[in-house]
Amino acid sequence: MASEPQGGLTEYIQHHLHHYTVSLGDGDFMKIHVDSLVVSFVLGALFCLWFWLKARKATSGVPSKGQAFVEIIVEFVDTQVKDTFHGDRRTVTPLALSIFMWVVFLNTMDLLPLDAPGWGVKAVAGAEVAHHTFFRWVPTADINTTMGLALAVFFIVLAHGMKAKGVGGFGWELITAPFHADNVAVKIILMPFNLALNVIEYLSKPVSLAMRLFGNMYGGELVFMLIAGLFAGWISFLPGVLFNSVWAIFHILIILLQAFIFMMLTIVYIATAREHH
């Protein structure tokens, strides 16, 4: 969060890779990344407030530009759900919309100036305090955030599977699919292999969701850090702005694409969980 590199590019990047943490006990496992939690909560609240205000002021006549924009987003998400999930969409579409918009909001933080928090602290408390203060405001560049989102999706997928097939039916499918056998003895022999394959399949879903989003956003954030560190002086200010602008324009595609992929995989996982083998 330093407003300018101190001690070279390596120290500058390492400084920006630190989170503002609060320790609840001994060890790294008990540390909470306050910056990721606060930014995620604020952006989630802003998304809810935005859509709530537009829904409250919605009219059946000619919509305003803001209402039309929100309607385009909702229709886009609902179309994706309808094409992928062939069941009752009343709960799936709001879930997909929330995931898409929230991840877009979280990813978009990567487009804000990297050193903006440091500038604020420096203006209030001085450069020394800013240099020793850490704040990363791209929550999806934090593996804890993406894994939390992925685990939430994982439990929602399990709930959909149990609702569609019943707890007993869901458990029976875990040990009898994908390999089937008419012979009882063979069926019993295949049960451990079916269970292992299904457990691996289910556990791989949150891991792939979390790592894909985290890897892309962490890599994008690191590129911004490299550009900011390499072009930090006044002489190289204009080249730095140019390189940052070019990367930011390209990064917009990554921001939207990663949110879309996260949403689509969530829909696919739910649709798959509700299908019977």
TrEMBL record:
Listed transmembrane segments: 32-53, 92-109, 143-162, 222-242, 248-271
Major localisation: membrane
Membrane topology reported for the UniProt record: Multi-pass membrane protein
Annotated keywords: ATP synthesis, Cell membrane, CF(0), Hydrogen ion transport, Ion transport, Membrane, Transmembrane, Transmembrane helix, Transport
Statement: the UniProt record of this protein carries the keyword Acyltransferase: no
Localisation: Cell membrane; Membrane
Short name of any one Pfam family annotated for the protein: ATP-synt_A
Purpose of the protein: Key component of the proton channel; it plays a direct role in the translocation of protons across the membrane.
Family the entry assigns: Belongs to the ATPase A chain family.
Descriptive protein name: ATP synthase subunit a
